[in-house]
Amino acid sequence: MTTRPSTGRRGARLPDDAPNPTHTTTHAPDRLEHAMTMPTSAPTPSSDPAALRVALLGAGTVGASVARLLGERAELLAARAGRPLELAGVAVRDTGRVRDGVDPALLTDDVEGLVERADLVVEVMGGLEPARGLIERALRRGVPVVTANKQLIAQQGPQLQAVADEHGAGLHYEAAVMAAVPVMAVVGESLAGDEIASISGIVNGSTNYVLDLVARKGVPFEEAVRQAGELGYLEADPTEDLEGLDAAAKIVILARTAWDLPVSMEDVQRQGITGLTDADFEQAAAHGSVIKLVASAWRSAAGGGDRVEVAVRPVALPQDDPLAQAREGTNVLIVEARSAGSLRLQGAGAGGDATASAVLGDIVRAARGR
Ligand SMILES: NC(=O)C1=CN([C@@H]2O[C@H](COP(=O)(O)OP(=O)(O)OC[C@H]3O[C@@H](n4cnc5c(N)ncnc54)[C@H](O)[C@@H]3O)[C@@H](O)[C@H]2O)C=CC1
Ligand SMILES: N[C@@H](CC=O)C(=O)O
User: Fold this and answer.
1) CA 173 to chain centre
2) Structural domains of the chain, ranges and CATH numbers in brackets
3) Which residue positions in the chain have pLDDT lower than 50?
4) What is the pLDDT of residue 46?
5) Nearest ligand to residue 355 Cα
6) Residue 13's pLDDT is what?
7) Is 90 exposed, middle or buried (0-12, 13-18, 19+ CB in 10 A)?
8) Can you tell me the distance from the alpha carbon of 97 to that of 119, in angstroms, rounded to the nearest whole number?
9) Quick one: pLDDT at residue 45?
10) Top mutation candidate among 23, 62, 132, 230 for ligand 1, by most atoms within 8 Å of CB
11) Could you give the ipTM of this predicted complex?
12) Nearest 5°: phi and psi at 196?
Protein backbone atom coordinates (compact mmCIF):
# COMPACT_ATOMS: atom_id res chain seq x y z
CA MET A 1 0.00 0.00 0.00
CA THR A 2 1.15 3.50 -0.73
CA THR A 3 2.19 5.58 2.18
CA ARG A 4 1.00 9.15 1.92
CA PRO A 5 3.77 11.52 0.95
CA SER A 6 5.50 13.44 3.70
CA THR A 7 4.10 16.76 4.90
CA GLY A 8 6.91 18.46 3.03
CA ARG A 9 5.83 17.03 -0.31
CA ARG A 10 2.41 18.48 0.28
CA GLY A 11 4.00 21.85 0.79
CA ALA A 12 2.44 21.82 4.20
CA ARG A 13 5.48 22.30 6.42
CA LEU A 14 6.37 25.91 5.88
CA PRO A 15 8.32 28.35 8.00
CA ASP A 16 6.08 30.88 9.78
CA ASP A 17 6.66 33.74 7.40
CA ALA A 18 6.95 31.85 4.12
CA PRO A 19 4.37 32.70 1.50
CA ASN A 20 2.04 29.75 1.28
CA PRO A 21 0.78 29.04 -2.20
CA THR A 22 -2.11 26.88 -0.99
CA HIS A 23 -3.27 29.45 1.53
CA THR A 24 -2.78 32.53 -0.58
CA THR A 25 -5.08 31.16 -3.23
CA THR A 26 -7.85 32.05 -0.78
CA HIS A 27 -7.14 35.72 -1.19
CA ALA A 28 -7.48 36.41 -4.85
CA PRO A 29 -8.26 40.09 -4.21
CA ASP A 30 -5.12 40.35 -2.04
CA ARG A 31 -3.04 39.38 -4.99
CA LEU A 32 -4.28 42.22 -7.20
CA GLU A 33 -1.34 44.57 -6.92
CA HIS A 34 -2.37 48.11 -7.75
CA ALA A 35 -0.11 50.58 -9.43
CA MET A 36 -1.21 53.45 -7.20
CA THR A 37 0.68 54.16 -4.02
CA MET A 38 -1.31 53.72 -0.85
CA PRO A 39 -0.61 55.80 2.22
CA THR A 40 1.31 53.79 4.82
CA SER A 41 -0.70 55.35 7.62
CA ALA A 42 -4.39 55.95 7.13
CA PRO A 43 -5.86 59.30 8.11
CA THR A 44 -8.40 59.14 10.92
CA PRO A 45 -11.80 59.26 9.21
CA SER A 46 -14.23 61.94 10.29
CA SER A 47 -15.59 60.58 13.53
CA ASP A 48 -19.04 60.48 15.07
CA PRO A 49 -18.11 61.33 18.68
CA ALA A 50 -20.59 58.74 19.92
CA ALA A 51 -19.12 55.99 17.75
CA LEU A 52 -16.96 53.17 19.07
CA ARG A 53 -13.73 53.22 17.07
CA VAL A 54 -12.83 49.68 16.03
CA ALA A 55 -9.26 48.80 15.06
CA LEU A 56 -9.08 45.76 12.80
CA LEU A 57 -5.69 44.02 12.84
CA GLY A 58 -5.48 41.84 9.72
CA ALA A 59 -7.48 41.77 6.48
CA GLY A 60 -7.06 38.20 5.28
CA THR A 61 -9.81 35.58 5.05
CA VAL A 62 -11.41 36.58 8.36
CA GLY A 63 -10.46 40.27 8.51
CA ALA A 64 -11.83 41.05 5.04
CA SER A 65 -15.16 39.43 5.96
CA VAL A 66 -15.31 41.34 9.24
CA ALA A 67 -14.61 44.66 7.49
CA ARG A 68 -17.24 44.02 4.83
CA LEU A 69 -19.92 42.87 7.30
CA LEU A 70 -19.23 45.80 9.66
CA GLY A 71 -20.19 48.02 6.73
CA GLU A 72 -23.12 45.98 5.46
CA ARG A 73 -24.66 45.54 8.93
CA ALA A 74 -23.78 48.98 10.35
CA GLU A 75 -27.34 49.83 11.33
CA LEU A 76 -28.15 46.47 12.89
CA LEU A 77 -24.84 46.40 14.78
CA ALA A 78 -25.29 49.96 16.07
CA ALA A 79 -28.74 49.07 17.38
CA ARG A 80 -27.43 45.95 19.12
CA ALA A 81 -24.24 47.54 20.44
CA GLY A 82 -26.07 50.66 21.65
CA ARG A 83 -23.87 53.01 19.59
CA PRO A 84 -22.44 53.17 16.08
CA LEU A 85 -19.35 51.12 15.34
CA GLU A 86 -16.78 52.95 13.25
CA LEU A 87 -13.95 51.11 11.54
CA ALA A 88 -11.03 53.34 12.55
CA GLY A 89 -8.39 51.51 10.51
CA VAL A 90 -7.29 48.15 9.16
CA ALA A 91 -3.71 47.06 9.86
CA VAL A 92 -2.05 45.00 7.13
CA ARG A 93 1.49 44.18 6.08
CA ASP A 94 1.11 45.55 2.56
CA THR A 95 -1.02 48.68 2.25
CA GLY A 96 -0.55 48.63 -1.52
CA ARG A 97 -2.85 45.64 -2.00
CA VAL A 98 -6.56 46.13 -2.47
CA ARG A 99 -8.82 43.82 -0.44
CA ASP A 100 -12.39 43.04 -1.38
CA GLY A 101 -14.80 44.85 0.92
CA VAL A 102 -12.09 46.93 2.64
CA ASP A 103 -11.92 50.69 2.07
CA PRO A 104 -8.31 51.27 0.89
CA ALA A 105 -8.26 54.59 2.78
CA LEU A 106 -8.47 52.65 6.03
CA LEU A 107 -5.42 50.46 5.40
CA THR A 108 -2.39 51.18 7.54
CA ASP A 109 0.89 49.53 8.45
CA ASP A 110 1.11 51.62 11.63
CA VAL A 111 -0.48 48.90 13.72
CA GLU A 112 0.66 50.28 17.08
CA GLY A 113 -0.69 53.74 16.26
CA LEU A 114 -3.99 52.17 15.27
CA VAL A 115 -4.24 50.25 18.56
CA GLU A 116 -3.51 53.47 20.47
CA ARG A 117 -6.44 55.36 18.95
CA ALA A 118 -9.02 52.55 19.17
CA ASP A 119 -11.88 51.97 21.60
CA LEU A 120 -12.01 48.29 20.66
CA VAL A 121 -9.38 46.07 19.02
CA VAL A 122 -10.14 43.09 16.76
CA GLU A 123 -7.09 40.87 16.23
CA VAL A 124 -7.36 38.61 13.18
CA MET A 125 -3.75 38.65 12.02
CA GLY A 126 -2.79 35.33 13.60
CA GLY A 127 0.59 34.21 14.95
CA LEU A 128 1.98 34.76 18.42
CA GLU A 129 3.87 38.02 17.91
CA PRO A 130 3.21 40.84 17.33
CA ALA A 131 -0.41 39.80 18.04
CA ARG A 132 0.25 39.10 21.73
CA GLY A 133 2.06 42.39 22.34
CA LEU A 134 -0.63 44.39 20.57
CA ILE A 135 -3.44 42.72 22.49
CA GLU A 136 -1.63 43.34 25.77
CA ARG A 137 -1.11 46.98 24.82
CA ALA A 138 -4.83 47.44 24.20
CA LEU A 139 -5.84 45.62 27.39
CA ARG A 140 -3.45 47.75 29.47
CA ARG A 141 -5.33 50.80 28.14
CA GLY A 142 -8.59 49.21 29.32
CA VAL A 143 -9.61 48.63 25.71
CA PRO A 144 -11.57 45.42 25.01
CA VAL A 145 -10.11 42.92 22.57
CA VAL A 146 -11.81 40.42 20.27
CA THR A 147 -9.55 37.77 18.77
CA ALA A 148 -9.89 34.64 16.62
CA ASN A 149 -6.33 33.58 17.43
CA LYS A 150 -6.58 30.10 18.95
CA GLN A 151 -2.83 29.44 19.10
CA LEU A 152 -2.29 32.64 21.05
CA ILE A 153 -5.18 31.98 23.43
CA ALA A 154 -4.12 28.35 23.96
CA GLN A 155 -0.53 29.38 24.68
CA GLN A 156 -0.95 32.78 26.37
CA GLY A 157 -4.65 33.00 27.25
CA PRO A 158 -4.35 32.88 31.05
CA GLN A 159 -1.61 35.55 31.07
CA LEU A 160 -3.63 37.82 28.76
CA GLN A 161 -6.77 37.21 30.82
CA ALA A 162 -4.88 38.31 33.93
CA VAL A 163 -3.92 41.58 32.21
CA ALA A 164 -7.52 42.01 31.03
CA ASP A 165 -8.85 41.47 34.56
CA GLU A 166 -6.29 43.83 36.07
CA HIS A 167 -7.31 46.62 33.71
CA GLY A 168 -11.03 45.91 33.57
CA ALA A 169 -10.99 45.16 29.84
CA GLY A 170 -12.84 42.30 28.15
CA LEU A 171 -10.96 39.60 26.25
CA HIS A 172 -13.31 37.77 23.84
CA TYR A 173 -12.46 34.76 21.67
CA GLU A 174 -15.61 32.92 20.59
CA ALA A 175 -14.28 32.88 17.00
CA ALA A 176 -11.11 31.05 18.03
CA VAL A 177 -12.98 27.78 18.60
CA MET A 178 -15.18 26.30 15.85
CA ALA A 179 -15.74 29.64 14.08
CA ALA A 180 -19.51 30.18 13.68
CA VAL A 181 -20.56 27.55 16.24
CA PRO A 182 -21.02 29.34 19.59
CA VAL A 183 -19.32 26.72 21.73
CA MET A 184 -17.43 29.08 24.03
CA ALA A 185 -20.68 30.73 25.11
CA VAL A 186 -22.26 27.33 25.72
CA VAL A 187 -19.34 25.79 27.61
CA GLY A 188 -18.30 28.97 29.46
CA GLU A 189 -21.65 30.57 30.20
CA SER A 190 -24.71 28.43 29.48
CA LEU A 191 -23.28 25.37 31.26
CA ALA A 192 -21.68 27.37 34.08
CA GLY A 193 -24.12 25.83 36.54
CA ASP A 194 -23.59 22.27 35.40
CA GLU A 195 -20.80 19.70 35.72
CA ILE A 196 -19.23 18.86 32.39
CA ALA A 197 -17.92 15.30 32.17
CA SER A 198 -16.44 15.29 28.68
CA ILE A 199 -16.11 17.23 25.45
CA SER A 200 -15.32 15.64 22.13
CA GLY A 201 -15.75 16.31 18.47
CA ILE A 202 -14.50 17.58 15.17
CA VAL A 203 -13.06 21.03 15.77
CA ASN A 204 -10.99 21.56 12.64
CA GLY A 205 -12.75 22.37 9.38
CA SER A 206 -9.91 21.91 6.92
CA THR A 207 -8.91 18.41 8.01
CA ASN A 208 -12.55 17.38 8.05
CA TYR A 209 -12.87 18.73 4.53
CA VAL A 210 -9.82 16.74 3.43
CA LEU A 211 -10.85 13.49 5.15
CA ASP A 212 -14.40 13.81 3.81
CA LEU A 213 -13.35 14.43 0.21
CA VAL A 214 -10.79 11.64 0.23
CA ALA A 215 -13.22 9.11 1.73
CA ARG A 216 -16.47 10.08 0.05
CA LYS A 217 -15.37 11.35 -3.34
CA GLY A 218 -11.97 9.72 -3.82
CA VAL A 219 -10.30 13.12 -4.22
CA PRO A 220 -6.49 12.78 -3.85
CA PHE A 221 -5.24 13.99 -0.46
CA GLU A 222 -3.08 16.81 -1.85
CA GLU A 223 -5.90 18.08 -4.08
CA ALA A 224 -8.29 18.11 -1.11
CA VAL A 225 -5.74 20.14 0.89
CA ARG A 226 -5.46 22.59 -2.01
CA GLN A 227 -9.25 23.01 -2.12
CA ALA A 228 -9.40 23.57 1.65
CA GLY A 229 -6.89 26.39 1.12
CA GLU A 230 -8.99 27.90 -1.63
CA LEU A 231 -12.00 27.95 0.67
CA GLY A 232 -10.02 29.92 3.29
CA TYR A 233 -10.07 27.02 5.77
CA LEU A 234 -6.32 26.47 6.20
CA GLU A 235 -4.09 28.31 8.64
CA ALA A 236 -1.26 30.47 7.23
CA ASP A 237 0.93 27.49 8.14
CA PRO A 238 -1.16 24.45 7.09
CA THR A 239 0.88 22.08 9.28
CA GLU A 240 -1.09 23.56 12.17
CA ASP A 241 -4.20 21.96 10.65
CA LEU A 242 -2.70 18.78 9.21
CA GLU A 243 -0.62 17.90 12.28
CA GLY A 244 -3.49 18.52 14.69
CA LEU A 245 -2.03 21.64 16.34
CA ASP A 246 -5.06 23.75 15.47
CA ALA A 247 -7.43 21.16 16.94
CA ALA A 248 -5.13 20.84 19.96
CA ALA A 249 -5.32 24.58 20.64
CA LYS A 250 -9.11 24.50 20.43
CA ILE A 251 -9.54 21.54 22.78
CA VAL A 252 -7.11 23.15 25.26
CA ILE A 253 -9.21 26.33 25.27
CA LEU A 254 -12.44 24.34 25.68
CA ALA A 255 -11.01 22.19 28.48
CA ARG A 256 -9.74 25.20 30.42
CA THR A 257 -13.10 26.89 30.04
CA ALA A 258 -15.06 23.80 31.09
CA TRP A 259 -13.04 22.91 34.18
CA ASP A 260 -11.06 26.00 35.11
CA LEU A 261 -7.98 23.82 35.53
CA PRO A 262 -4.55 24.45 34.00
CA VAL A 263 -4.31 22.70 30.62
CA SER A 264 -1.59 23.44 28.09
CA MET A 265 -0.64 22.44 24.55
CA GLU A 266 2.01 20.12 26.01
CA ASP A 267 -0.72 18.10 27.71
CA VAL A 268 -2.34 17.12 24.41
CA GLN A 269 -1.75 13.58 23.15
CA ARG A 270 -1.63 14.60 19.52
CA GLN A 271 -1.59 12.87 16.15
CA GLY A 272 -2.48 14.62 12.90
CA ILE A 273 -3.67 13.24 9.58
CA THR A 274 -0.43 13.35 7.56
CA GLY A 275 0.53 9.83 8.63
CA LEU A 276 -2.65 8.30 7.21
CA THR A 277 -2.07 6.00 4.26
CA ASP A 278 -4.26 4.93 1.35
CA ALA A 279 -4.47 1.58 3.15
CA ASP A 280 -5.99 3.27 6.20
CA PHE A 281 -8.75 4.81 4.08
CA GLU A 282 -9.36 1.53 2.22
CA GLN A 283 -9.49 -0.46 5.44
CA ALA A 284 -11.90 1.99 7.05
CA ALA A 285 -14.19 1.84 4.00
CA ALA A 286 -14.07 -1.97 3.98
CA HIS A 287 -15.26 -1.97 7.61
CA GLY A 288 -18.01 0.58 6.96
CA SER A 289 -16.09 3.17 8.98
CA VAL A 290 -15.12 6.78 8.40
CA ILE A 291 -11.83 8.34 9.55
CA LYS A 292 -12.24 11.62 11.45
CA LEU A 293 -9.80 13.79 13.38
CA VAL A 294 -11.34 13.74 16.84
CA ALA A 295 -10.42 16.10 19.66
CA SER A 296 -11.41 15.04 23.17
CA ALA A 297 -11.13 16.27 26.73
CA TRP A 298 -12.31 14.54 29.86
CA ARG A 299 -11.88 14.83 33.59
CA SER A 300 -9.68 12.17 35.12
CA ALA A 301 -8.86 11.10 38.64
CA ALA A 302 -5.88 9.06 37.43
CA GLY A 303 -3.01 9.12 39.90
CA GLY A 304 -5.36 10.24 42.66
CA GLY A 305 -5.50 13.83 41.35
CA ASP A 306 -8.10 15.95 39.64
CA ARG A 307 -6.81 16.52 36.16
CA VAL A 308 -7.89 16.91 32.56
CA GLU A 309 -6.86 14.56 29.78
CA VAL A 310 -6.76 16.01 26.26
CA ALA A 311 -6.19 14.24 22.96
CA VAL A 312 -6.36 14.83 19.21
CA ARG A 313 -6.13 11.82 16.94
CA PRO A 314 -7.60 10.24 13.80
CA VAL A 315 -10.28 7.72 14.70
CA ALA A 316 -12.22 5.25 12.52
CA LEU A 317 -15.89 5.76 13.42
CA PRO A 318 -18.96 3.75 12.41
CA GLN A 319 -20.95 5.41 9.60
CA ASP A 320 -23.90 6.17 11.89
CA ASP A 321 -21.81 8.00 14.49
CA PRO A 322 -22.85 11.70 14.61
CA LEU A 323 -19.24 12.73 14.06
CA ALA A 324 -18.90 10.41 11.05
CA GLN A 325 -21.67 12.30 9.28
CA ALA A 326 -19.93 15.70 9.36
CA ARG A 327 -19.34 16.77 5.78
CA GLU A 328 -16.71 19.13 4.35
CA GLY A 329 -15.87 22.03 6.70
CA THR A 330 -18.54 21.15 9.26
CA ASN A 331 -17.53 20.93 12.92
CA VAL A 332 -19.43 18.95 15.55
CA LEU A 333 -18.99 19.08 19.32
CA ILE A 334 -20.58 16.75 21.82
CA VAL A 335 -20.65 17.96 25.41
CA GLU A 336 -21.71 15.57 28.15
CA ALA A 337 -22.90 17.35 31.28
CA ARG A 338 -24.36 15.89 34.45
CA SER A 339 -27.73 17.65 34.38
CA ALA A 340 -27.95 18.79 30.76
CA GLY A 341 -27.11 15.36 29.40
CA SER A 342 -25.63 15.09 25.93
CA LEU A 343 -25.54 18.28 23.84
CA ARG A 344 -24.55 18.39 20.20
CA LEU A 345 -23.35 21.65 18.58
CA GLN A 346 -22.77 21.65 14.88
CA GLY A 347 -22.03 24.09 12.06
CA ALA A 348 -19.45 25.88 9.96
CA GLY A 349 -16.08 25.56 11.66
CA ALA A 350 -13.99 27.61 9.25
CA GLY A 351 -14.18 30.25 6.53
CA GLY A 352 -14.30 34.04 6.37
CA ASP A 353 -17.97 34.87 6.89
CA ALA A 354 -18.58 32.00 9.33
CA THR A 355 -15.73 33.20 11.53
CA ALA A 356 -16.73 36.84 11.09
CA SER A 357 -20.17 35.94 12.50
CA ALA A 358 -18.53 34.99 15.80
CA VAL A 359 -16.20 38.01 15.70
CA LEU A 360 -19.14 40.37 15.20
CA GLY A 361 -21.02 38.71 18.06
CA ASP A 362 -18.02 39.33 20.31
CA ILE A 363 -17.75 42.94 19.09
CA VAL A 364 -21.36 43.55 20.12
CA ARG A 365 -20.77 41.78 23.45
CA ALA A 366 -17.65 43.88 24.08
CA ALA A 367 -19.39 47.11 23.04
CA ARG A 368 -22.27 46.43 25.41
CA GLY A 369 -19.78 45.90 28.21
CA ARG A 370 -18.11 49.28 27.67
N1 LIG B 1 -9.63 31.19 8.28
C2 LIG B 1 -10.49 30.64 9.15
O3 LIG B 1 -11.41 29.89 8.79
C4 LIG B 1 -10.33 30.93 10.60
C5 LIG B 1 -9.26 31.61 11.10
N6 LIG B 1 -9.15 31.85 12.44
C7 LIG B 1 -8.03 32.61 12.95
O8 LIG B 1 -8.16 33.95 12.53
C9 LIG B 1 -6.86 34.53 12.36
C10 LIG B 1 -6.73 35.06 10.94
O11 LIG B 1 -6.93 33.99 10.04
P12 LIG B 1 -7.02 34.26 8.45
O13 LIG B 1 -7.83 35.45 8.18
O14 LIG B 1 -7.40 32.95 7.87
O15 LIG B 1 -5.49 34.57 8.13
P16 LIG B 1 -4.88 35.26 6.84
O17 LIG B 1 -3.48 34.77 6.74
O18 LIG B 1 -5.80 35.08 5.70
O19 LIG B 1 -4.89 36.82 7.19
C20 LIG B 1 -3.98 37.40 8.10
C21 LIG B 1 -3.97 38.92 7.86
O22 LIG B 1 -3.18 39.52 8.88
C23 LIG B 1 -2.23 40.40 8.28
N24 LIG B 1 -1.03 40.38 9.12
C25 LIG B 1 -0.36 39.29 9.56
N26 LIG B 1 0.69 39.68 10.30
C27 LIG B 1 0.66 41.03 10.31
C28 LIG B 1 1.48 42.03 10.89
N29 LIG B 1 2.55 41.69 11.62
N30 LIG B 1 1.16 43.34 10.70
C31 LIG B 1 0.08 43.69 9.98
N32 LIG B 1 -0.75 42.78 9.41
C33 LIG B 1 -0.44 41.48 9.57
C34 LIG B 1 -1.99 39.84 6.91
O35 LIG B 1 -1.51 40.85 6.05
C36 LIG B 1 -3.40 39.36 6.53
O37 LIG B 1 -4.13 40.47 6.07
C38 LIG B 1 -5.86 33.42 12.71
O39 LIG B 1 -5.51 33.55 14.07
C40 LIG B 1 -6.67 32.15 12.50
O41 LIG B 1 -6.23 31.07 13.29
C42 LIG B 1 -10.11 31.43 13.33
C43 LIG B 1 -11.19 30.74 12.90
C44 LIG B 1 -11.38 30.41 11.50
N1 LIG C 1 -7.79 26.27 10.06
C2 LIG C 1 -8.96 26.22 10.89
C3 LIG C 1 -9.77 27.46 10.68
C4 LIG C 1 -10.75 27.67 11.75
O5 LIG C 1 -10.47 27.66 12.92
C6 LIG C 1 -9.78 25.01 10.55
O7 LIG C 1 -9.51 24.40 9.52
O8 LIG C 1 -10.67 24.68 11.32
Assistant:
1) 9
2) 33-179+354-369 (3.40.50.720), 196-348 (3.30.360.10)
3) 1-44
4) 55
5) 1
6) 26
7) buried
8) 26
9) 52
10) 62
11) 0.99
12) -80, 130
